[in-house]
Recover the amino acids of this structure.
């Protein structure tokens, strides 16, 4: 069974390759059939042995058969040491200025020294440490010594406010001799916020820093590297991000970070098999116009085809996408939308009326060709599943 057929001709099947060879935007109001259409599309891609990665913020796509499913907090996690400081701050939703960001970076460095050179999981106390000795530690710290005691990060950050005495006792051969109390008080709210975020159950599960004997989990960056470097065999990778459902800014940052990693990996390699990247309900995680250039979704949309990466995005309104992002999508599957402003934003020809579409019907536009009215075909597994539920 094909993904979809033309409503004007029951025998005219839609060529799925033409639908996914360019970035595809799936638009429609809640309940108009967006998710069903993408599930049908993914079923067809599985048959054709295409590699697909679904970033699923709600857990909706775990119902798709023949998937390799990883759920954050259950069998997948994100290693903090795999993140740059700006990425870590974004995932933790910390809006800090440059100075505090620099101190956070230094705190991570000091925790790495403690873990790998001092063989301790405690904090690095800067009082009374000679600068020459500290510099020697930095030279000894190899690039592979990346992991650190993440739970101590807020406590270590306090140590970064150690300074020389403010009087004649100051000895500038040392990193510092006392805590800068005034500076600490000025930044105390941010330090407490960091400590609170780290202690929240969702972030404990995301970063997986509690012992769990007998439970095997896979790190997300490793998972993405494996799936984008080796073609799948009729399987789809689903990353269930619903652990962070209550933290949309963290989900946005995580999705952006993962997509940028995928793009970097593929651009640096000679691998050419296509990978389809699916983001459901993308309107929840799309950046503002001012932040667009730094966002992974936009970077994939703009540069992904060089690395044989294409996006499939679902959203409720075309206006959810900034114009610069929307212009990157050559293909569009339009389900029911009724808002006149949203309709006008798509510059639809007169024959295209999306206001009266029934669930499962839509208008398809592929790479400059005419809009075609289609009927999405439910995959066999969907029909069989619903029949079993009725028994």
């Amino acid at each position: 069974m094909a993904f979809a057929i033309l409503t004007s001709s029951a025998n005219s099947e839609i060529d799925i390759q033409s639908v996914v060879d360019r970035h595809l935007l799936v638009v429609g109001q809640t309940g108009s059939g967006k998710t069903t259409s993408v599930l049908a599309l993914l079923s067809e891609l599985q048959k054709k042995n295409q590699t697909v990665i679904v970033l699923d913020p709600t857990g909706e796509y775990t119902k798709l058969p023949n998937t390799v499913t990883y759920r954050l907090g259950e069998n997948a996690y994100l290693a903090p040491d795999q993140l740059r400081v700006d990425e870590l701050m974004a995932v933790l939703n910390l809006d800090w200025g440059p100075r505090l960001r620099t101190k956070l970076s230094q705190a991570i460095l000091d925790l790495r020294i403690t873990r790998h050179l001092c063989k301790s999981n405690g904090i690095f106390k800067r009082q009374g440490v000679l600068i020459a000795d500290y510099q020697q530690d930095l030279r000894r710290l190899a690039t592979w010594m990346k992991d650190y005691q993440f739970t101590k990060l807020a406590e270590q950050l306090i140590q970064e406010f150690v300074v020389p005495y403010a009087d004649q006792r100051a000895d500038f051969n040392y990193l510092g001799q006392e805590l800068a109390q005034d500076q600490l008080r000025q930044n105390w709210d941010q330090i407490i916020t960091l400590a609170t975020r780290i202690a929240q159950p969702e972030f404990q599960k995301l970063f997986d820093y509690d012992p769990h004997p007998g439970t095997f989990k896979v790190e997300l960056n490793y998972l993405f590297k494996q799936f984008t470097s080796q073609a799948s065999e009729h399987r789809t990778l689903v990353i269930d991000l619903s652990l962070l459902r209550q933290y949309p800014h963290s989900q946005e940052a995580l999705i952006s970070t993962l997509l940028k990693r995928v793009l970097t990996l593929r651009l640096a390699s000679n691998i050419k098999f296509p990978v389809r990247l699916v983001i459901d309900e993308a309107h929840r995680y799309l950046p503002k116009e001012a932040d667009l250039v730094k966002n992974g979704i936009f970077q994939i949309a703009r540069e992904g085809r060089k690395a044989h990466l294409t996006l499939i995005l679902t959203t409720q309104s075309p206006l959810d996408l900034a114009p610069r992002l929307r212009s990157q999508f050559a293909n569009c599957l339009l389900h029911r939308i009724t808002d006149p402003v949203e309709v006008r934003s798509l510059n639809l020809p007169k024959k295209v009326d999306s206001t009266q579409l029934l669930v499962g019907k839509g208008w398809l536009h592929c790479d400059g060709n005419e809009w075609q009215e289609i009927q999405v075909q439910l995959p066999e597994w969907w029909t069989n599943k619903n029949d079993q539920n009725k028994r």
The first helix runs from residue 16 to 20. The chain has two domains: 4-78+217-390, 80-207. The domain at 4-78+217-390 is CATH 3.40.50.300 (Rossmann fold). Residues 339 and 355 are 8 Å apart (CA to CA).
